[in-house]
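Collaborator request, handled under Task 6.
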Amino acid sequence: MMEVVKFSILLLEFIGVMVVLFSSLLAIYRYIKKDPHTRLKLCRAMAMALEFKLGGEILRTVIVREFSEVLLVGCMILLRAGLTFLIHWAISTEEAEEKEHEQHCREHIATIKRLQAEAEECQCK
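Structure tokens returned to the collaborator:
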């Protein structure tokens, strides 16, 4: 049973690392291509990676034997949970800014269309 838990911990940690590596490389590519959503996508990927790493830490609590190990694992869980919270907060902020920007663009487009219609109406008269 312990071997399954240890393997699962390693697997979750490995998946977390791979998500970080893959998403970082993808973010570099998107940044070069000037994708405006690069930061948001990277934040989401980092949150996903932290979830895998957090899962590994939670499983690690099953195999600890001493109080000092429990304390260390507990601190790691708190640290990773805090990072996850901060990343989710950054995602929410980024999404709100994106929505605000899109609304601002829609208002500008509506103004331009209204002005074009008025200009065409003036030319007809």
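The cover message to the collaborator said: "Residues 29 and 46 are 16 Å apart (CA to CA). The mean pLDDT is 87. Please let us know whether this matches your experimental observations."
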